């Protein structure tokens, strides 16, 4: 998880200086040109919020036989997939990074932080 508030985080640079083999891209509005220099020679970006530009970049990468790839991910919700994720959490194999917690009375602040697009984990609103 990168902190977008730091210069290296905003540029998606690895704290160790190593190149990424896989990036799970969870935010919109970050162009391919930000990811590409930080990927290993066979690196992939899995975009879980793909827009038109993601599909176009994916097509260009295929047409040019690039080893670096953008993979737009589109999923249909299925019970068995959710059960699988729940079991990963129960087994301690999947952990959620929490950016911040807000009481329900401050839900508007939580929403503003979410819209800002630079949370470094999940934003929780508690009753």
List the topology elements:
Elements: H1 7-10, E1 20-25, H2 32-35, E2 39-47, H3 52-63, E3 69-72, H4 79-90, E4 98-103, H5 107-116, E5 122-126
Parallel strand pairs: 1-2, 2-3, 4-5
Protein name: Enoyl reductase (ER) domain-containing protein
Pfam families: ADH_zinc_N_2
Organism: Gossypium davidsonii (Davidson's cotton)
The CATH homologous superfamily name of the largest domain equals NAD(P)-binding Rossmann-like Domain
Q: What would the CATH topology of the largest domain be?
A: Rossmann fold
Q: Average pLDDT, to the nearest integer? A: 85
Name of the level-1 CATH class of the largest domain: Alpha Beta
Helix content class = 25-40%
The largest sheet, given as strand count, sense and whether it forms a barrel, is:
3 strands, parallel
Q: So how many helices? A: 5
Radius of gyration of CA atoms, rounded to a whole number = 17 Å
Order of helices and strands: HEHEHEHEHE
How does the helix and strand content classify structurally?
alpha/beta
Question: Low-confidence parts lasting 5 or more residues at pLDDT below 50?
Answer: none
The proportion of strand residues reads 15-25%
Organism: Gossypium davidsonii (Davidson's cotton)
Pfam families: ADH_zinc_N_2
Protein name: Enoyl reductase (ER) domain-containing protein
